[in-house]
Amino acid sequence: MPVDDILELDELTDDGAPMPRRRGRSAWIVFAALGFACVFVVVEIFANLGIKDSIGHAEQTLTVAQAAAGRVDAADGNLNGADHTRMDAVEPSLQWIAGGDQATGLNEVSVATDNGDWGAAVEARPGACFYLHLTSEGGTFYGVGTSCTGQEALRATDPRW
User: Fold this and answer.
1) At a CB cut-off of 8 Å and minimum separation 6, what does 118 contact?
2) What is the pTM of this model?
3) Residue 38 reports pLDDT greater than 50
4) Is 141 in the same domain as 96?
5) Per the CB 3.0–4.6 Å rule, which of 28, 72, 108, 158 could disulfide with 95?
């Protein structure tokens, strides 16, 4: 039996009538997958809409903290005395806590000092913290992590967020 005859037999129904062609079934599968992907992306965008505001607020808090640390450095000539008690007197608009304690909000800053270096940590959302590390040589470093303490901020080594 030639191959052409086999193909022709496959295209006939049991009563000998030609099989109806089902065109476009694979196209519908592709369109359905693309539609699902689009819906998924839109849902994710709206679900994470507030995160950028939280990140911006955390970065702004650290900018205010850095300016306050600069005032202490200008007054004392170093950052050794820029602990949470001193920072509260310099910048009362933020809540300052000790460097070993976890910051738990956007306006709460955990600060620590070590040999002239100064570190600050702010929680953008639970489990996501931003760090600022000022060195005694004048370097400024940034970082992110999950532990929101000033002690962790002293380990930040990135030149930008």
Assistant:
1) 69, 79, 82, 111, 112, 133, 134, 154
2) 0.69
3) yes
4) yes
5) 108
Looking at the structure, tell me whether residues 25 and 76 fall in a common domain. Answer: no
Q: What 3 state SS string does the chain have?
A: CCHHHHHHHHCECCCCCECCCCCCHHHHHHHHHHHHHHHHHHHHHHHCCCHHHHHHHHHHHHHHHHHHHHHHHHHHCCCCCCCHHHHHHHCCCCEEEECCCCCCCCCEEEEEEECCEEEEEEEEECCEEEEEEECCCCCEEEEEECCCCHHHHCCCCECCC
pLDDT band, residue 7 (cuts 50/70/90): very low
Tokens representing 120 are 């600050």
Amino acid occupying residue 57: H
Q: Would you state the structure tokens that stand for residue 31, as one six-digit string?
A: 């369109």
List Cα–Cα distances, 10 to 7, 86, 149, in angstroms. Answer: 5, 87, 72
CA separation for the pair 20, 87 (Å, rounded) = 81
100: tokens are: 């070993």
**More confident position, 161 or 126:** 126
Domain count, the chain: 2
Q: What is the pLDDT of residue 91?
A: 92
Q: 56 and 31, same structural domain?
A: no
